[in-house]
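User: I'm putting together a teaching handout on how sequence relates to shape, and I'd like one worked example. Could you take Cobalamin import system permease protein BtuC from Natronococcus jeotgali DSM 18795, show the sequence you're using, and then write out its predicted structure as tokens right after it?

Assistant: Happy to. First the sequence, then the structure tokens directly below it.
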Amino acid sequence: MFRPGRLASWSIALSALLVCAVVGSAALGPVRIDPLTVSRAILNLAGLGVHEVPATHQTIVADVRLPRILLAATVGFALAAAGTVMQGFFRNPLADPSIIGVSSGAAVGAVAAIAFPALVPIGSVHLPAFVGALVTAFLVYAIATEGGRTPVATLLLAGVAIQAFLGAVISFLVVHSGENLREAVVWMMGHLNRSTWGDVGFALPVTVGGVLVLGAYTREMNVLLLGEEDAHHLGVDVERTKLLLLALASVVTAAGVAVAGVVGFVGLVVPHVMRLIVGPDHRILLPTSALAGASFLVIADTAARVGAFGLPIVPVGIVTATVGAPFFLYLLTNREVHAL
């Protein structure tokens, strides 16, 4: 039975964790700033009163650290929410947002813009990556759809085939990227370097809007777990719902990947762990996974940015893979993968 109080409790707890992660992250860096000063600087930026903060610290928090931190939270929120939807859609706890090639499509758009800037004279990789991700999702769906039906198994296989093809395209573009090779490789690793408020403004509205709409379909997600035939008998328009879920998850994923590159394991591990904790009901699982994903990526990017535990400063995708892969292997070897 769904209990709103349980959702509220988890949401409050995870929101508090996210606030602590944001403040703690903003306090860390080459210039250490105490959390109270960080909090005052954030309140000043939000227009919630005027608090005395040294001008240098205000600039560091508001213009340097906070855009990157909020972008990390946005991307983590997007990938974890999309991963939750994909795992429910495919009824497979090993599914993630890139399973139908969205990340590969974004990589093609971004690497093409980096390697051949004259062909994509936009001045930013965000839009080419976003468009590449959506075109790939549409292509996979079109290939898998026949006679008005889209079998999940066919969709999965089409996604695998398109990913393989796009992998070859990406390799070709990287080989011919010349002096832009390093930038292309770093983008594919997943990074949040040089994040700006413009990046946040690009990703945040799409992510929040997409997840809010997905939240309206959590009942249908729950029913689809019973199987498509049972869902049809229970009054769900299966094909329409599948198209909407796939489209929305792809848009949310595209928004995250476009600004941060290919950040792995967030959309795989976070929804799986939250499902073990809160259960499979998407009315609770979707919002809690999104909030947990936001906190996870903020913490991971902080480690990547400050070189935690004596490690060198690296792209955040390396940190998420380093943490996510062993942890997921631990789940596989020490307890059963949670059945959907």
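A couple of points you could highlight for students: The chain has one domain: 70-334. Residues 70-334 form a domain with the ABC transporter involved in vitamin B12 uptake, BtuC fold (CATH 1.10.3470.10).
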